[in-house]
């Protein structure tokens, strides 16, 4: 009796459901895209989320590496300019010392 009642309730519930064709089309398109991505990246469909997260982490690491590279390039340029200025000061000092030495 309980099984019959449960099956009747399920039939009533199903009869009351309205299937939106547009929504069904969207769901099928997303499902197809998920299956396509799973084949493309050679992972199981249920592993797509974890694979996506690993790609996001890898991308973030690459961006961080790019930022570090830019910072290092800027530091290198600053050090190069400091080196050039110090070398010019040393050169002028040597020239002055050379003139004094030549006079002596």
UniProtKB/TrEMBL annotation:
According to its UniProt entry, the protein's GO biological process terms are: DNA recombination; DNA repair; SOS response
Q: Which branch of life, at top level? A: Bacteria
One GO CC term on file: bacterial nucleoid
What GO molecular-function term can you cite, just one? ATP binding
Q: What InterPro entries does UniProt report for this protein, alphabetically?
A: DNA_recomb/repair_RecN (IPR004604)
**Could you confirm whether the keyword DNA damage appears in this record?**
yes
> Can the keyword ATP-binding be found in this entry's annotation?
yes
Keyword list, A-Z: ATP-binding, DNA damage, DNA repair, Nucleotide-binding
Function statement: May be involved in recombinational repair of damaged DNA.
Q: What is this protein called?
A: DNA repair protein RecN
Organism of this sequence:
Bowmanella dokdonensis
